[in-house]
Amino acid sequence: MYGRHEDGSAGDANYGAIGSGYKTYRQPDPHIAQFILDALGDAATVLNVGAGAGSYEPVDRKVTAVEPSASMRAQRPAHLSPAIDATAERLPFPDRNFDASMATFTVHQWADLGRGLREMRRVTRGPVVVLSCDPDALEGSWLHVYAPEMIAVEARRYPAMTAIAGALAGHVEIRPVPIPLNCVDGFGEAYYGRPERLLDPGARLANSAWSFVEPAVGERFVADLSRDLEDGTWDDRYGDLRRQPFFEGSLRLIVSRP
């Protein structure tokens, strides 16, 4: 079980330390957002669990947000409702209270995955929608070549698709979500065709996995990637990605209906 950090973060990452510039680099991407909106269907009331700064919250529904990190709650824009300080494992709502619920890039942070997902199902009448990454697909990115330690951390933290599906039960569908070339949600694979962006320390900090590896790993990553970009090695190996409109990496949408 993970403990809570000083700012209230309930997962393994301390967002009080790494989350200050999160929303600068992690904006909701319209292409990815459409997958979520389609899965939510016509739900009028939506619960967003592990809501962070509010990425991917639909603005045309009544949304209730839950977020344990004070740092992340403070970054929510004014047009979104304030988030409730609570965790996925103990949702303070009655049974079947919401038409739908969602959780994006958060389940790998939860102290008890099964309990959190069962809580989402308990309070939801309709679809439960989870955006996460398949740990078995993470090694398909060039990042694995340059920062295998970081990818190994990600693979250990992200739960298997079968674990998520098993906890949600009901009718479960797992959908690959292709990542667009100019993705504005800066998780690691979002920069598949824009490697220079990951030389920015803020871009790496917005991906919590970098906080779990030694600083020397990041320093080596920057040195190796900078060298290979300068002498053309990266483009010789991966340059076609700069013109590839979508990358089918590890991003998955898990949709459970009762």
TrEMBL record:
Entry keyword annotation includes Protease: no
GO biological process: methylation
GO terms, molecular function: S-adenosylmethionine-dependent methyltransferase activity
Chain segments annotated as transmembrane: none
Domain (Methyltransferase type) ranges: 47-125
Highest rank taxon of the organism: Bacteria
Gene3D superfamilies in the cross-refs: Vaccinia Virus protein VP39
Pfam families: Methyltransf_11 (PF08241)
Swiss-Prot/TrEMBL keywords: Methyltransferase, Transferase
UniProt-recorded name of the protein: SAM-dependent methyltransferase
